[in-house]
Amino acid sequence: MTSKATRGRQEVEMKKLQKESSRQVTFSKRRNGLFKKASEICLPCGANIGIIVFSPKGKPFIFGHPNIETILDQLYDECEEALEKLKEEKKKRIEHTKEAMKNKGEFWWDEAIDDNMGLEELEAYLKAIEELRNNVARKANESMMCDVVADSGGYFDFGIAADAFNFDHCPSHDFGAAGQL
Amino acid sequence: MTSKATRGRQEVEMKKLQKESSRQVTFSKRRNGLFKKASEICLPCGANIGIIVFSPKGKPFIFGHPNIETILDQLYDECEEALEKLKEEKKKRIEHTKEAMKNKGEFWWDEAIDDNMGLEELEAYLKAIEELRNNVARKANESMMCDVVADSGGYFDFGIAADAFNFDHCPSHDFGAAGQL
DNA sequence: AACACTATTGTTAGAGC
DNA sequence: AGCTCTAACAATAGTGT
Known about the structure:
The structure is a homodimer. By secondary structure, chain A is mainly α. The first copy, chain A, has a domain at 117-148. Helix content of chain A is 52%, strand content 8%. Chain A has helices at residues 20-45, 68-103, 114-145; strands at 48-54, 60-65, 156-157. A 3-stranded antiparallel β-sheet of chain A has the order 1-2-3, sandwiched between helices. In chain A, helix 2 (68-103) packs antiparallel against helix 3 (114-145). The longest helix of chain A is centred in the middle third of the chain and has 36 residues, at 68-103. Chain A starts with 19 loop residues before the first helix and ends in a 24-residue tail after the last strand. Strand 1 (48-54) of chain A pairs antiparallel with strand 1 of chain B. Chain A binds a DNA duplex through residues 1-4, 6-12, 22, 25-26, 29-30, 33, 36-37.
């Protein structure tokens, strides 16, 4: 207790911290804070959250409730649904236009449908992605990645290089997520 | 200013909030807090963060710096790298074993290499994923999703149903991320 | 439903080990 | 590097409007 002035929380400056060392320390502290906040949303509110953080040096840290794969799958499902809806909207629009032109006695040719073709493609892409990434996720978990983290407050740090064979600390996630999604 | 007792911040109880209404309100407030915290890490620390939140009702909210696609790509790259490293380790191990057995005058047959085949497959899967999802991301951005959000504190709420044709508010992200990843 | 207020608790920067 | 401490500042639950 020598100095008294420059202690305690400072106002959060929204500019890049210049000192490499304090940037690293601040990063760790705030990342912990972020993950804690996330865990304070998941259970009390019944939400699912996935967080992917790349450190200043590019090291990845993952938080996931119930786990990151579920979140990514949910995201892709959401995209798929959105595209499906858009596709239907476009179809209806085209039908509508077609109908209107017929009624006005104008010619109709199917080239306009091309506008819709890109979307069919997209759907196929999304299906392929889902299949593929399910395979990868399963295999990756089986063979090396252990698991990322449940929202138990902990998180998984892809310890790559030399410890690729370390399988210790594989938490199982048992949050039932009482079914409101 | 009628009552004075039960106001202000309560201790964060780690159990599911029972009242549907306050669960929704609490979710919104804390989600905002979470995204703010994230933005207080990105710029000052030079980190990249992606957050995917599914509300109690399954509605998705995205935060991304510089944007969610970059984060997902980085994640897949990381996985790919990790698997590559693991593959090499396994190969070396097998070579080592092979060598040792030869030196001991025992027989060697190549069945053990099968242990390595799953990994080659995995690599192919990952390559396919990357290609496919790059296509999807590009097409989706072009055709409907506008963009998710930079870490400017805002975030994108997949407004699906009826507003699939609303293309307003498409922020461009211009954080150069001064290259420490 | 969404904002303003505010008592209270939570978070955290820097210091000291 | 990682930990504890703690002054200062931030976040937020409940209330009001």
